[in-house]
Amino acid sequence: MAGRFDPLSRAAVRGGRTQVPPGSGSAPAAGARRSHRPPGAPVDLGLTLGPLRRGPGDPTFRTTPDGSVWRATRTPEGPATLRVSRAADGAVDAEAWGPGADWVLTGLPALLGAEDDPDAFVPRHRLLHTSHRRRPGLRLTRTGLVLESLVPVVLEQKVTADEAYRSWRRLVRRYGEPAPGPQDLYVMPDPRTWALIPSWGWHQAGVDMKRSSTIIRAARVAARLEEAAAMDLPRAAARLEAVPGIGPWTSAETLQRSNGAADALTTGDLHLPGIVGYALTGERDADDDRMLELLAPYAGQRHRAARLILLAGRTPPRRAPRMYRSDIARI
Fold first, then answer.
1. Could you give the angle at which helices 209-220 and 146-155 cross, rounded to 10 degrees?
2. Which residues contact 204 (CB under 8 A, 6 or more apart)?
3. How far apart (Å, rounded) are the C-alpha atoms in residues 114 and 105?
């Protein structure tokens, strides 16, 4: 039964499942350090930080054989690289490098879900009860950084995940900068650089004009968007959706990461309503309205419920070919 509820399927990966090798947690190099001991069950680093990873080749995210999770980020104080690993006593040890090191270490508890309240979730379906019980270390991360979460979400609009991941890799490696610290990671571009990428640069990364224009508009008002990290969910969503090209799907996917919003349910998704309907009732043609109806008992925790459903891996059988993958950079 464990395999049935914990597969490394595409749905589970989308639910934020990232494999972190069991290791010693020994540090390869010295940086600014901090330790955090979350209350309750030990934090599962793979499940908690997995949603921040954009594909297996993400230049801003890496797991290493010693059991560490590495993350390069652009903070308000400058670039930083963060390494986290779980100690034998259940605490989480962290090291950071770069001008933004103090900022990321200060935000470490929120990143590990300290502001999340998993006890507020009460399973009302057998599948959700099982999925929740099997993942006591799941926390909803909060980065406090909006543009960092928004850009890769915009890249995922109307394309396959593989296409979006490829575009993210190309853009970050070409227009970002090497991250501080011992790992070969990259920090994403700053808002000004995003706004100045030429049309042919977007084309070479496989990004069409609609998505690139949305990112440019967001970069030009990045300071205003970052304020949404301190807002409640309705106000934060309204702030993001004031930018043309950002709708409910994009704002929800962004705020799930930047704000740790437990109720930011993704609507307008091609697959999620069918997965939720099939997992909870056996319906394979559920739409957004039906998904909202099924998840109504989890008001306030609907994003967590959707994640647990994705991690359970119970998805409807395919009835059509996979979505066509393209690369406009070759045109």
1. 170
2. 170, 329
3. 13
Q: What is the structure's pLDDT at 327?
A: 72
Helix (H) or strand (E) holding 35: strand 32-36
> What Å distances lie between residue 239 and 36, 120, 153, CA to CA?
32, 27, 16
Q: Are 62 and 70 in contact (CB under 8 A)?
A: yes
Query: What would the two tokens of residue 286 be?
Result: 């559920």
Q: Any idea of the CA torsion for 53, 56, 61, 66, to the nearest 10 degrees?
A: 120
Task: For residues 249 and 253, give the distance between their C-alpha atoms in angstroms, rounded to a whole number.
Answer: 6
φ/ψ of 161, rounded to 5, equals: -60, -40
Look at the block and give the residue holding tokens 């969910």.
Answer: 233
| Best CA proximity match to 249, nearest among 157, 149, 152, 146 | 157
Contact by Cβ (8 Å): 35, 112: no
Beta bridge partners of 64: 68
Phi, psi of 260 (to 5 degrees): 60, 35
Token pair listed for 86: 């779980």
In which residue are the tokens 């799907």 written?
Answer: 249
pTM of the full structure: 0.89
Neighbouring CB atoms inside 10 A of 108's CB total 17
- H or E element at residue 64: strand 61-64
pLDDT digit string, tens, across residues 52-81? 999 999 999 999 999 999 999 999 999 999
